[in-house]
Amino acid sequence: MPSNFNEHEMTKLRNIIAELNREIIKSKEHEQTVLSEFSSMNNDLVTLQRELAKNNSRLNEAKNQAVQASEAKSEFLALLSHEFRTPLNGIIGMTEILLMSSLTEEQRQSVAVIQESSQLLLYLINDILDLSKLEAGEMKLNPSDMNLRSISKHVNMLLSAKADKSGNQLYSEIDDSLSDTLIGDGTRVTQILMNLVGNAIKFTQDGSIYTRIRVLSESDQRQKLRIEVTDTGIGITKEDQSKLFRPYAQTSDGQQSKYGGTGLGLSISKYFVNLMDGQIGVISDYGEGSTFWIEVSFEIKSNGETKIPAANELDMNRLTAVTLETTDCIPCTSIEHPILIAEDNSINRKVVLVQLEKLGITNIDTVENGEEAVAAYLSRTYCAILMDHMMPKLDGIEATRKIRQIEQDEMRPHTPIIALTGNVTERQRKECLEAGMDDYLPKPITLETLREMMQRWLPEMHDDSILNEEVVMELLNLSEDKKGELLESLLDMYQADTPSKIDQLLHHIHNNQYSEVINSAHDLKSSSLSLGIEHLSLLLGKIETSARMGCLEEPKRLKELLLPAYEKACSEIKKVLSSVHQ
Protein backbone atom coordinates (compact mmCIF):
# COMPACT_ATOMS: atom_id res chain seq x y z
CA MET A 1 0.00 0.00 0.00
CA PRO A 2 2.66 2.51 0.88
CA SER A 3 4.65 1.63 -2.24
CA ASN A 4 1.61 2.19 -4.49
CA PHE A 5 0.92 5.43 -2.67
CA ASN A 6 4.48 6.60 -3.16
CA GLU A 7 4.34 5.77 -6.84
CA HIS A 8 1.05 7.62 -7.20
CA GLU A 9 2.43 10.63 -5.37
CA MET A 10 5.55 10.59 -7.46
CA THR A 11 3.51 10.53 -10.64
CA LYS A 12 1.43 13.40 -9.37
CA LEU A 13 4.53 15.35 -8.48
CA ARG A 14 6.03 14.66 -11.89
CA ASN A 15 2.86 15.93 -13.52
CA ILE A 16 2.91 19.07 -11.37
CA ILE A 17 6.56 19.62 -12.17
CA ALA A 18 5.87 19.06 -15.87
CA GLU A 19 2.97 21.53 -15.69
CA LEU A 20 5.16 24.03 -13.89
CA ASN A 21 7.81 23.57 -16.53
CA ARG A 22 5.26 24.23 -19.24
CA GLU A 23 4.08 27.33 -17.36
CA ILE A 24 7.67 28.49 -16.95
CA ILE A 25 8.29 27.90 -20.63
CA LYS A 26 5.09 29.80 -21.50
CA SER A 27 6.07 32.57 -19.10
CA LYS A 28 9.51 32.79 -20.65
CA GLU A 29 7.97 32.78 -24.12
CA HIS A 30 5.57 35.54 -23.02
CA GLU A 31 8.43 37.42 -21.43
CA GLN A 32 10.39 37.07 -24.62
CA THR A 33 7.43 38.34 -26.59
CA VAL A 34 7.01 41.29 -24.24
CA LEU A 35 10.73 42.02 -24.40
CA SER A 36 10.59 41.80 -28.17
CA GLU A 37 7.58 44.14 -28.28
CA PHE A 38 9.28 46.51 -25.83
CA SER A 39 12.42 46.45 -27.92
CA SER A 40 10.34 47.19 -31.01
CA MET A 41 8.53 50.00 -29.21
CA ASN A 42 11.86 51.34 -27.96
CA ASN A 43 13.19 51.26 -31.49
CA ASP A 44 10.07 53.11 -32.65
CA LEU A 45 10.55 55.64 -29.86
CA VAL A 46 14.18 56.18 -30.82
CA THR A 47 13.10 56.57 -34.44
CA LEU A 48 10.43 59.08 -33.37
CA GLN A 49 12.98 60.98 -31.31
CA ARG A 50 15.28 61.13 -34.29
CA GLU A 51 12.42 62.32 -36.51
CA LEU A 52 11.44 64.89 -33.86
CA ALA A 53 15.02 66.12 -33.68
CA LYS A 54 15.09 66.39 -37.48
CA ASN A 55 11.74 68.21 -37.48
CA ASN A 56 12.96 70.58 -34.76
CA SER A 57 16.04 71.23 -36.82
CA ARG A 58 13.87 71.87 -39.90
CA LEU A 59 11.58 74.15 -37.85
CA ASN A 60 14.55 76.11 -36.52
CA GLU A 61 15.94 76.36 -40.01
CA ALA A 62 12.55 77.48 -41.33
CA LYS A 63 12.26 80.00 -38.48
CA ASN A 64 15.73 81.36 -39.23
CA GLN A 65 14.86 81.56 -42.91
CA ALA A 66 11.63 83.40 -42.04
CA VAL A 67 13.55 85.85 -39.83
CA GLN A 68 16.13 86.35 -42.57
CA ALA A 69 13.34 86.80 -45.13
CA SER A 70 11.64 89.36 -42.88
CA GLU A 71 14.91 91.23 -42.38
CA ALA A 72 15.63 91.05 -46.11
CA LYS A 73 12.13 92.39 -46.79
CA SER A 74 12.67 95.26 -44.36
CA GLU A 75 16.05 96.07 -45.89
CA PHE A 76 14.56 95.87 -49.39
CA LEU A 77 11.69 98.19 -48.44
CA ALA A 78 14.15 100.58 -46.79
CA LEU A 79 16.28 100.61 -49.94
CA LEU A 80 13.17 100.94 -52.12
CA SER A 81 11.96 103.83 -49.99
CA HIS A 82 15.32 105.58 -50.27
CA GLU A 83 15.54 105.01 -54.01
CA PHE A 84 11.98 106.28 -54.58
CA ARG A 85 12.24 109.27 -52.28
CA THR A 86 15.56 110.49 -53.63
CA PRO A 87 14.31 111.39 -57.15
CA LEU A 88 10.91 112.31 -55.72
CA ASN A 89 12.64 114.86 -53.50
CA GLY A 90 14.03 116.48 -56.63
CA ILE A 91 10.62 116.60 -58.29
CA ILE A 92 8.78 117.98 -55.26
CA GLY A 93 11.52 120.39 -54.24
CA MET A 94 11.96 121.89 -57.68
CA THR A 95 8.19 122.07 -58.21
CA GLU A 96 7.91 124.02 -54.98
CA ILE A 97 10.65 126.41 -56.06
CA LEU A 98 9.06 126.73 -59.52
CA LEU A 99 5.72 127.72 -58.01
CA MET A 100 7.44 130.66 -56.32
CA SER A 101 8.47 132.12 -59.67
CA SER A 102 6.42 134.09 -62.16
CA LEU A 103 4.41 131.64 -64.27
CA THR A 104 1.71 131.94 -66.88
CA GLU A 105 -1.62 130.30 -66.09
CA GLU A 106 -0.86 127.45 -68.48
CA GLN A 107 2.54 126.88 -66.85
CA ARG A 108 1.00 126.97 -63.39
CA GLN A 109 -1.55 124.32 -64.42
CA SER A 110 1.25 122.13 -65.76
CA VAL A 111 3.19 122.45 -62.51
CA ALA A 112 -0.01 121.63 -60.60
CA VAL A 113 -0.23 118.34 -62.53
CA ILE A 114 3.36 117.51 -61.54
CA GLN A 115 2.54 118.43 -57.94
CA GLU A 116 -0.57 116.22 -57.85
CA SER A 117 1.26 113.27 -59.46
CA SER A 118 4.14 113.50 -56.98
CA GLN A 119 1.68 113.61 -54.09
CA LEU A 120 -0.05 110.44 -55.33
CA LEU A 121 3.30 108.68 -55.69
CA LEU A 122 4.32 109.69 -52.17
CA TYR A 123 0.97 108.49 -50.75
CA LEU A 124 1.63 105.09 -52.36
CA ILE A 125 5.15 104.87 -50.91
CA ASN A 126 3.88 105.83 -47.46
CA ASP A 127 1.10 103.23 -47.61
CA ILE A 128 3.52 100.44 -48.54
CA LEU A 129 5.87 101.38 -45.70
CA ASP A 130 3.03 101.69 -43.20
CA LEU A 131 1.76 98.24 -44.15
CA SER A 132 5.26 96.78 -43.79
CA LYS A 133 5.67 98.32 -40.32
CA LEU A 134 2.25 97.09 -39.22
CA GLU A 135 2.86 93.53 -40.43
CA ALA A 136 6.23 93.51 -38.65
CA GLY A 137 4.62 94.78 -35.44
CA GLU A 138 6.83 97.89 -35.51
CA MET A 139 3.99 100.42 -35.65
CA LYS A 140 3.18 102.01 -32.30
CA LEU A 141 0.54 104.56 -31.33
CA ASN A 142 1.60 107.91 -29.88
CA PRO A 143 -1.27 109.09 -27.66
CA SER A 144 -1.50 112.80 -26.86
CA ASP A 145 -4.15 115.52 -26.66
CA MET A 146 -6.44 115.57 -29.70
CA ASN A 147 -9.54 117.47 -30.73
CA LEU A 148 -11.76 115.39 -33.02
CA ARG A 149 -13.79 118.41 -34.12
CA SER A 150 -10.62 120.08 -35.37
CA ILE A 151 -9.40 116.85 -36.97
CA SER A 152 -12.66 116.41 -38.90
CA LYS A 153 -12.58 120.05 -39.99
CA HIS A 154 -8.94 119.70 -41.03
CA VAL A 155 -9.62 116.57 -43.11
CA ASN A 156 -12.53 118.22 -44.93
CA MET A 157 -10.38 121.27 -45.61
CA LEU A 158 -7.57 119.15 -47.06
CA LEU A 159 -9.94 117.19 -49.29
CA SER A 160 -12.23 120.06 -50.29
CA ALA A 161 -10.44 120.67 -53.61
CA LYS A 162 -10.73 116.98 -54.51
CA ALA A 163 -14.42 117.01 -53.55
CA ASP A 164 -15.10 120.12 -55.63
CA LYS A 165 -13.43 118.53 -58.63
CA SER A 166 -15.91 115.63 -58.53
CA GLY A 167 -18.89 117.86 -57.73
CA ASN A 168 -19.27 116.60 -54.15
CA GLN A 169 -20.29 118.41 -50.97
CA LEU A 170 -18.61 117.62 -47.62
CA TYR A 171 -20.60 117.79 -44.38
CA SER A 172 -19.87 117.11 -40.71
CA GLU A 173 -22.31 116.19 -37.93
CA ILE A 174 -20.69 116.03 -34.49
CA ASP A 175 -22.36 115.16 -31.20
CA ASP A 176 -22.50 118.13 -28.82
CA SER A 177 -21.49 115.87 -25.93
CA LEU A 178 -18.16 114.97 -27.60
CA SER A 179 -15.33 116.00 -25.29
CA ASP A 180 -13.16 118.83 -26.62
CA THR A 181 -9.92 117.10 -25.67
CA LEU A 182 -9.40 113.33 -25.80
CA ILE A 183 -6.23 111.28 -25.41
CA GLY A 184 -5.37 109.41 -28.59
CA ASP A 185 -3.10 109.29 -31.62
CA GLY A 186 -4.50 112.26 -33.54
CA THR A 187 -2.16 111.65 -36.46
CA ARG A 188 -3.45 108.11 -37.03
CA VAL A 189 -7.09 109.15 -36.52
CA THR A 190 -6.50 111.84 -39.16
CA GLN A 191 -4.95 109.26 -41.47
CA ILE A 192 -7.98 106.97 -41.07
CA LEU A 193 -10.44 109.78 -41.78
CA MET A 194 -8.36 110.97 -44.75
CA ASN A 195 -8.61 107.48 -46.18
CA LEU A 196 -12.34 106.98 -45.55
CA VAL A 197 -13.40 110.44 -46.74
CA GLY A 198 -10.97 110.24 -49.67
CA ASN A 199 -12.45 106.90 -50.75
CA ALA A 200 -15.98 108.30 -50.43
CA ILE A 201 -15.05 111.20 -52.71
CA LYS A 202 -13.36 108.83 -55.16
CA PHE A 203 -16.47 106.68 -55.63
CA THR A 204 -19.05 109.50 -55.56
CA GLN A 205 -19.89 111.93 -58.35
CA ASP A 206 -22.04 115.05 -57.80
CA GLY A 207 -23.14 113.76 -54.41
CA SER A 208 -22.66 114.24 -50.67
CA ILE A 209 -20.24 112.87 -48.08
CA TYR A 210 -21.13 113.07 -44.40
CA THR A 211 -18.74 112.60 -41.49
CA ARG A 212 -20.66 111.85 -38.31
CA ILE A 213 -19.17 111.51 -34.82
CA ARG A 214 -21.52 110.25 -32.09
CA VAL A 215 -20.90 109.52 -28.42
CA LEU A 216 -22.26 106.02 -27.72
CA SER A 217 -21.46 105.97 -24.00
CA GLU A 218 -19.34 107.64 -21.35
CA SER A 219 -17.87 106.04 -18.22
CA ASP A 220 -14.68 105.95 -16.19
CA GLN A 221 -13.38 109.09 -17.89
CA ARG A 222 -13.69 107.47 -21.33
CA GLN A 223 -15.99 108.12 -24.26
CA LYS A 224 -16.99 105.37 -26.65
CA LEU A 225 -17.49 106.88 -30.10
CA ARG A 226 -18.97 105.84 -33.40
CA ILE A 227 -17.43 107.61 -36.38
CA GLU A 228 -19.24 107.18 -39.70
CA VAL A 229 -18.37 108.33 -43.20
CA THR A 230 -21.43 108.08 -45.46
CA ASP A 231 -21.52 108.75 -49.18
CA THR A 232 -24.14 108.74 -51.93
CA GLY A 233 -21.83 106.98 -54.36
CA ILE A 234 -21.83 103.73 -56.31
CA GLY A 235 -22.01 101.42 -53.29
CA ILE A 236 -20.36 98.03 -52.79
CA THR A 237 -21.68 94.56 -53.64
CA LYS A 238 -21.98 91.92 -50.88
CA GLU A 239 -19.28 89.86 -52.60
CA ASP A 240 -16.87 92.80 -52.69
CA GLN A 241 -17.60 93.73 -49.06
CA SER A 242 -16.02 90.43 -47.97
CA LYS A 243 -12.77 91.48 -49.69
CA LEU A 244 -12.44 94.84 -47.97
CA PHE A 245 -9.87 95.56 -45.24
CA ARG A 246 -7.40 93.04 -46.70
CA PRO A 247 -4.08 94.25 -48.10
CA TYR A 248 -4.10 94.92 -51.86
CA ALA A 249 -7.77 93.86 -52.08
CA GLN A 250 -9.99 96.06 -54.24
CA THR A 251 -13.64 95.96 -55.21
CA SER A 252 -14.57 95.13 -58.80
CA ASP A 253 -15.30 98.81 -59.41
CA GLY A 254 -12.17 99.88 -57.56
CA GLN A 255 -9.99 97.90 -59.97
CA GLN A 256 -11.04 100.18 -62.83
CA SER A 257 -8.21 102.46 -63.82
CA LYS A 258 -10.34 105.61 -63.55
CA TYR A 259 -10.50 105.18 -59.77
CA GLY A 260 -6.85 104.32 -59.13
CA GLY A 261 -5.43 103.21 -55.80
CA THR A 262 -3.71 100.10 -54.50
CA GLY A 263 -6.22 98.68 -52.03
CA LEU A 264 -3.91 99.39 -49.09
CA GLY A 265 -5.74 102.25 -47.40
CA LEU A 266 -8.58 100.28 -45.79
CA SER A 267 -6.31 97.49 -44.55
CA ILE A 268 -3.98 100.06 -42.95
CA SER A 269 -6.98 101.81 -41.40
CA LYS A 270 -8.13 98.50 -39.93
CA TYR A 271 -4.68 97.87 -38.46
CA PHE A 272 -4.76 101.29 -36.78
CA VAL A 273 -8.28 100.75 -35.44
CA ASN A 274 -7.21 97.37 -34.05
CA LEU A 275 -4.23 99.03 -32.33
CA MET A 276 -6.80 101.35 -30.71
CA ASP A 277 -8.80 98.28 -29.53
CA GLY A 278 -11.67 99.36 -31.76
CA GLN A 279 -13.77 97.93 -34.60
CA ILE A 280 -14.29 98.98 -38.21
CA GLY A 281 -16.93 97.87 -40.71
CA VAL A 282 -19.06 98.83 -43.69
CA ILE A 283 -22.78 98.99 -44.51
CA SER A 284 -23.60 99.24 -48.20
CA ASP A 285 -26.06 98.33 -50.94
CA TYR A 286 -24.78 98.39 -54.48
CA GLY A 287 -25.89 101.54 -56.27
CA GLU A 288 -27.10 103.22 -53.07
CA GLY A 289 -23.93 104.50 -51.40
CA SER A 290 -21.87 103.25 -48.46
CA THR A 291 -21.27 103.92 -44.77
CA PHE A 292 -17.91 103.04 -43.27
CA TRP A 293 -18.03 103.03 -39.48
CA ILE A 294 -15.57 102.88 -36.59
CA GLU A 295 -16.31 102.24 -32.93
CA VAL A 296 -13.49 103.13 -30.56
CA SER A 297 -12.99 104.45 -27.02
CA PHE A 298 -10.74 107.32 -25.97
CA GLU A 299 -9.76 108.65 -22.58
CA ILE A 300 -11.12 112.09 -21.69
CA LYS A 301 -8.46 114.59 -20.70
CA SER A 302 -9.15 115.26 -17.04
CA ASN A 303 -8.33 118.79 -15.98
CA GLY A 304 -10.24 121.92 -15.19
CA GLU A 305 -8.58 124.05 -17.82
CA THR A 306 -10.40 125.64 -20.70
CA LYS A 307 -10.02 123.29 -23.63
CA ILE A 308 -7.92 124.73 -26.44
CA PRO A 309 -6.65 123.12 -29.65
CA ALA A 310 -4.07 120.43 -28.88
CA ALA A 311 -0.52 120.90 -30.07
CA ASN A 312 -0.46 117.83 -32.26
CA GLU A 313 -3.25 119.28 -34.39
CA LEU A 314 -0.85 121.93 -35.59
CA ASP A 315 1.36 119.19 -37.04
CA MET A 316 -1.42 117.30 -38.85
CA ASN A 317 -0.61 118.94 -42.15
CA ARG A 318 2.32 116.50 -42.35
CA LEU A 319 -0.21 113.87 -43.44
CA THR A 320 -0.83 115.80 -46.65
CA ALA A 321 2.61 114.50 -47.71
CA VAL A 322 3.51 117.64 -49.63
CA THR A 323 2.60 121.25 -48.89
CA LEU A 324 3.55 123.47 -51.80
CA GLU A 325 2.90 127.13 -51.16
CA THR A 326 3.68 130.09 -53.38
CA THR A 327 5.49 132.01 -50.66
CA ASP A 328 8.31 134.42 -51.28
CA CYS A 329 11.77 134.15 -49.82
CA ILE A 330 11.61 133.87 -46.03
CA PRO A 331 14.37 136.12 -44.69
CA CYS A 332 16.27 135.32 -41.54
CA THR A 333 18.91 137.00 -39.51
CA SER A 334 22.40 136.15 -40.75
CA ILE A 335 24.03 133.14 -39.16
CA GLU A 336 27.57 133.25 -37.88
CA HIS A 337 28.94 130.10 -39.54
CA PRO A 338 28.14 128.33 -42.83
CA ILE A 339 25.92 125.29 -43.23
CA LEU A 340 27.35 122.11 -44.77
CA ILE A 341 25.29 119.91 -47.12
CA ALA A 342 26.63 116.37 -47.53
CA GLU A 343 24.62 114.73 -50.34
CA ASP A 344 25.85 112.48 -53.15
CA ASN A 345 22.85 113.01 -55.46
CA SER A 346 23.46 116.18 -57.48
CA ILE A 347 19.74 116.91 -57.94
CA ASN A 348 18.98 116.63 -54.24
CA ARG A 349 22.07 118.67 -53.41
CA LYS A 350 20.81 121.42 -55.70
CA VAL A 351 17.28 121.24 -54.25
CA VAL A 352 18.42 121.65 -50.63
CA LEU A 353 20.84 124.40 -51.67
CA VAL A 354 18.08 126.39 -53.41
CA GLN A 355 15.66 125.78 -50.52
CA LEU A 356 18.18 127.12 -48.00
CA GLU A 357 18.76 130.16 -50.20
CA LYS A 358 14.99 130.74 -50.27
CA LEU A 359 15.13 130.75 -46.48
CA GLY A 360 17.73 133.50 -46.68
CA ILE A 361 20.73 131.28 -45.94
CA THR A 362 23.47 131.88 -48.51
CA ASN A 363 26.61 130.84 -46.62
CA ILE A 364 26.57 127.18 -47.69
CA ASP A 365 29.21 124.54 -48.50
CA THR A 366 28.41 121.29 -50.33
CA VAL A 367 30.23 117.94 -50.50
CA GLU A 368 29.42 114.65 -52.24
CA ASN A 369 30.36 111.95 -49.73
CA GLY A 370 31.10 111.22 -46.09
CA GLU A 371 34.88 111.49 -46.42
CA GLU A 372 34.56 115.00 -47.86
CA ALA A 373 32.08 115.87 -45.07
CA VAL A 374 34.62 114.92 -42.37
CA ALA A 375 37.39 116.80 -44.20
CA ALA A 376 35.18 119.89 -44.51
CA TYR A 377 34.31 119.71 -40.82
CA LEU A 378 38.02 119.61 -39.94
CA SER A 379 38.75 122.68 -42.07
CA ARG A 380 35.85 124.97 -41.04
CA THR A 381 33.35 125.59 -38.25
CA TYR A 382 29.74 124.91 -39.26
CA CYS A 383 26.57 125.93 -37.45
CA ALA A 384 24.82 122.81 -38.81
CA ILE A 385 25.46 119.83 -41.09
CA LEU A 386 22.75 118.31 -43.30
CA MET A 387 23.99 114.74 -43.77
CA ASP A 388 22.60 112.29 -46.30
CA HIS A 389 22.38 108.78 -44.91
CA MET A 390 23.51 106.74 -47.93
CA MET A 391 26.68 108.06 -49.60
CA PRO A 392 29.73 106.49 -51.31
CA LYS A 393 33.16 106.08 -49.68
CA LEU A 394 31.80 106.87 -46.21
CA ASP A 395 28.09 106.87 -45.43
CA GLY A 396 26.36 109.45 -43.24
CA ILE A 397 26.33 107.17 -40.18
CA GLU A 398 30.09 106.58 -40.17
CA ALA A 399 30.84 110.20 -41.07
CA THR A 400 28.76 111.32 -38.08
CA ARG A 401 30.57 108.90 -35.75
CA LYS A 402 33.93 110.28 -36.92
CA ILE A 403 32.80 113.89 -36.39
CA ARG A 404 31.49 113.10 -32.90
CA GLN A 405 34.78 111.39 -32.05
CA ILE A 406 36.73 114.44 -33.26
CA GLU A 407 34.50 116.67 -31.11
CA GLN A 408 35.26 114.54 -28.09
CA ASP A 409 39.01 114.21 -28.73
CA GLU A 410 39.56 117.89 -29.52
CA MET A 411 36.89 119.24 -27.13
CA ARG A 412 35.12 121.04 -29.95
CA PRO A 413 31.61 122.51 -29.47
CA HIS A 414 28.66 120.33 -30.47
CA THR A 415 27.61 120.80 -34.13
CA PRO A 416 24.00 119.87 -34.95
CA ILE A 417 23.92 117.08 -37.55
CA ILE A 418 20.58 116.46 -39.26
CA ALA A 419 20.00 113.26 -41.23
CA LEU A 420 18.66 113.61 -44.77
CA THR A 421 17.24 110.26 -45.81
CA GLY A 422 14.63 108.59 -47.93
CA ASN A 423 14.39 105.75 -45.43
CA VAL A 424 11.64 106.59 -42.94
CA THR A 425 11.58 103.41 -40.85
CA GLU A 426 11.84 103.58 -37.06
CA ARG A 427 14.88 101.34 -37.17
CA GLN A 428 16.66 103.75 -39.51
CA ARG A 429 15.72 106.76 -37.37
CA LYS A 430 17.12 104.99 -34.32
CA GLU A 431 20.34 104.12 -36.12
CA CYS A 432 20.86 107.77 -37.10
CA LEU A 433 20.26 109.05 -33.57
CA GLU A 434 22.46 106.38 -31.98
CA ALA A 435 25.28 107.36 -34.34
CA GLY A 436 25.17 110.88 -32.90
CA MET A 437 22.85 112.69 -35.29
CA ASP A 438 20.63 115.27 -33.61
CA ASP A 439 17.54 115.06 -35.79
CA TYR A 440 15.99 113.34 -38.76
CA LEU A 441 14.55 114.97 -41.90
CA PRO A 442 12.90 112.46 -44.26
CA LYS A 443 12.73 113.05 -47.98
CA PRO A 444 10.96 114.53 -49.83
CA ILE A 445 11.90 117.76 -48.07
CA THR A 446 9.55 120.71 -48.39
CA LEU A 447 10.53 124.30 -47.78
CA GLU A 448 8.32 124.45 -44.69
CA THR A 449 9.76 121.30 -43.06
CA LEU A 450 13.29 122.53 -43.79
CA ARG A 451 12.48 125.93 -42.27
CA GLU A 452 11.08 124.30 -39.13
CA MET A 453 14.17 122.10 -38.82
CA MET A 454 16.56 125.02 -39.22
CA GLN A 455 14.65 127.09 -36.67
CA ARG A 456 14.68 124.17 -34.26
CA TRP A 457 18.45 123.84 -34.34
CA LEU A 458 19.46 127.42 -35.15
CA PRO A 459 17.49 129.70 -32.81
CA GLU A 460 19.28 132.69 -34.30
CA MET A 461 17.55 131.86 -37.59
CA HIS A 462 13.98 133.01 -37.38
CA ASP A 463 11.67 135.19 -39.44
CA ASP A 464 10.47 137.51 -36.68
CA SER A 465 7.38 135.30 -36.38
CA ILE A 466 6.88 135.71 -32.66
CA LEU A 467 3.27 134.57 -33.17
CA ASN A 468 1.47 132.25 -35.55
CA GLU A 469 -1.09 134.74 -36.84
CA GLU A 470 -3.45 132.03 -38.12
CA VAL A 471 -3.78 130.42 -34.68
CA VAL A 472 -4.13 133.78 -32.90
CA MET A 473 -6.84 134.96 -35.31
CA GLU A 474 -8.73 131.68 -34.97
CA LEU A 475 -8.77 132.04 -31.17
CA LEU A 476 -9.67 135.70 -31.53
CA ASN A 477 -12.75 134.85 -33.59
CA LEU A 478 -13.95 131.95 -31.44
CA SER A 479 -15.74 134.20 -28.93
CA GLU A 480 -19.41 134.40 -29.86
CA ASP A 481 -20.40 137.51 -27.89
CA LYS A 482 -17.41 139.67 -27.04
CA LYS A 483 -14.64 139.49 -29.64
CA GLY A 484 -11.31 138.55 -28.12
CA GLU A 485 -12.76 137.40 -24.80
CA LEU A 486 -11.52 133.80 -25.16
CA LEU A 487 -8.04 134.87 -26.29
CA GLU A 488 -7.79 137.32 -23.41
CA SER A 489 -8.90 134.64 -20.92
CA LEU A 490 -6.41 132.13 -22.28
CA LEU A 491 -3.60 134.69 -22.14
CA ASP A 492 -4.40 135.42 -18.49
CA MET A 493 -4.23 131.69 -17.67
CA TYR A 494 -1.00 131.34 -19.68
CA GLN A 495 0.65 134.29 -17.90
CA ALA A 496 -0.42 132.95 -14.50
CA ASP A 497 1.32 129.59 -15.04
CA THR A 498 4.18 130.08 -17.49
CA PRO A 499 6.78 132.11 -15.53
CA SER A 500 6.87 129.53 -12.71
CA LYS A 501 7.03 126.71 -15.25
CA ILE A 502 9.96 128.37 -17.01
CA ASP A 503 11.69 128.72 -13.63
CA GLN A 504 11.16 124.99 -13.02
CA LEU A 505 12.56 124.17 -16.46
CA LEU A 506 15.65 126.31 -15.83
CA HIS A 507 16.12 124.54 -12.50
CA HIS A 508 15.91 121.11 -14.18
CA ILE A 509 18.39 122.16 -16.88
CA HIS A 510 20.82 123.49 -14.28
CA ASN A 511 20.63 120.20 -12.31
CA ASN A 512 20.94 117.95 -15.40
CA GLN A 513 17.53 116.33 -14.77
CA TYR A 514 16.88 114.95 -18.25
CA SER A 515 13.40 113.43 -17.85
CA GLU A 516 12.15 116.52 -15.98
CA VAL A 517 13.57 118.77 -18.72
CA ILE A 518 11.76 116.71 -21.37
CA ASN A 519 8.41 116.83 -19.54
CA SER A 520 8.63 120.52 -18.60
CA ALA A 521 9.73 121.64 -22.08
CA HIS A 522 7.02 119.54 -23.75
CA ASP A 523 4.31 120.95 -21.44
CA LEU A 524 5.42 124.54 -22.05
CA LYS A 525 5.73 123.93 -25.79
CA SER A 526 2.19 122.52 -26.01
CA SER A 527 0.58 125.39 -24.13
CA SER A 528 2.58 127.94 -26.15
CA LEU A 529 1.67 126.36 -29.50
CA SER A 530 -1.99 126.36 -28.52
CA LEU A 531 -1.85 130.15 -28.16
CA GLY A 532 0.09 130.56 -31.40
CA ILE A 533 3.32 131.53 -29.62
CA GLU A 534 5.70 130.30 -32.29
CA HIS A 535 9.27 131.38 -31.56
CA LEU A 536 9.18 130.37 -27.89
CA SER A 537 7.72 127.00 -28.95
CA LEU A 538 10.66 126.47 -31.32
CA LEU A 539 13.13 127.12 -28.51
CA LEU A 540 11.28 124.73 -26.20
CA GLY A 541 11.10 122.10 -28.95
CA LYS A 542 14.84 122.22 -29.39
CA ILE A 543 15.39 121.91 -25.64
CA GLU A 544 13.06 118.90 -25.51
CA THR A 545 14.74 117.21 -28.48
CA SER A 546 18.24 117.78 -27.09
CA ALA A 547 17.25 116.32 -23.71
CA ARG A 548 15.78 113.26 -25.45
CA MET A 549 19.13 112.83 -27.20
CA GLY A 550 20.86 112.87 -23.79
CA CYS A 551 22.48 116.26 -24.35
CA LEU A 552 21.92 119.41 -22.27
CA GLU A 553 24.61 121.60 -23.84
CA GLU A 554 22.15 123.27 -26.21
CA PRO A 555 19.43 123.75 -23.53
CA LYS A 556 22.01 125.47 -21.29
CA ARG A 557 22.87 127.79 -24.15
CA LEU A 558 19.22 128.50 -24.96
CA LYS A 559 17.83 128.94 -21.46
CA GLU A 560 18.64 132.67 -21.37
CA LEU A 561 16.41 133.19 -24.43
CA LEU A 562 13.25 131.73 -22.88
CA LEU A 563 11.98 134.57 -20.68
CA PRO A 564 12.63 137.30 -23.30
CA ALA A 565 10.79 135.18 -25.91
CA TYR A 566 7.89 134.63 -23.47
CA GLU A 567 7.62 138.34 -22.60
CA LYS A 568 7.80 139.37 -26.26
CA ALA A 569 5.03 136.91 -27.21
CA CYS A 570 2.70 138.10 -24.43
CA SER A 571 3.34 141.70 -25.47
CA GLU A 572 2.45 140.91 -29.09
CA ILE A 573 -0.82 139.18 -28.11
CA LYS A 574 -1.75 142.18 -25.95
CA LYS A 575 -1.18 144.43 -28.97
CA VAL A 576 -3.58 142.24 -30.97
CA LEU A 577 -6.21 142.44 -28.21
CA SER A 578 -5.70 146.19 -27.89
CA SER A 579 -6.33 146.71 -31.60
CA VAL A 580 -9.55 144.67 -31.34
CA HIS A 581 -10.86 146.66 -28.37
CA GLN A 582 -10.27 150.02 -30.03
Q: Which radius of gyration do the C-alpha atoms yield?
A: 35 Å
Global outline: extended
Task: Classify the oligomer.
Answer: single chain
- Spans of at least 5 consecutive residues whose pLDDT stays below 50 are 254-260, 304-333
Biggest β-sheet description = 7 strands, mixed
β-strand amount: 5-15%
Secondary-structure element string: HHEHEEHEEHHEEEHEHEHEHEHHHHHH
Number of domains: 3
Proper CATH architecture of the largest domain: 3-Layer(aba) Sandwich
Class of secondary structure makeup: alpha/beta
Structure annotation, total helices:
16
InterPro entries: CheY-like_superfamily, HATPase_C_sf, HATPase_dom, His_kinase_dom, HisK_dim/P_dom, HisK_dim/P_sf, HPT_dom_sf, Sig_transdc_His_kin-like_C
Membrane topology: Multi-pass membrane protein
Coiled coil: 10-72
Keywords: ATP-binding, Cell membrane, Coiled coil, Kinase, Membrane, Nucleotide-binding, Phosphoprotein, Transferase, Transmembrane, Transmembrane helix, Two-component regulatory system
Mind sketching the topology for me?
Blueprint: H1 2-99, H2 105-135, E1 144-146, H3 148-165, E2 169-174, E3 182-184, H4 186-202, E4 208-219, E5 222-231, H5 238-241, H6 265-275, E6 279-284, E7 290-300, E8 339-342, H7 346-358, E9 364-367, H8 370-379, E10 384-388, H9 396-410, E11 417-421, H10 426-434, E12 439-442, H11 447-457, H12 469-476, H13 485-510, H14 514-530, H15 534-548, H16 553-581
Parallel strand pairs: 2-4, 8-9, 8-10, 10-11, 11-12
Antiparallel strand pairs: 1-3, 3-7, 4-5, 5-7, 6-7
EC number: 2.7.13.3
Membrane topology: Multi-pass membrane protein
Catalytic activity: ATP + protein L-histidine = ADP + protein N-phospho-L-histidine
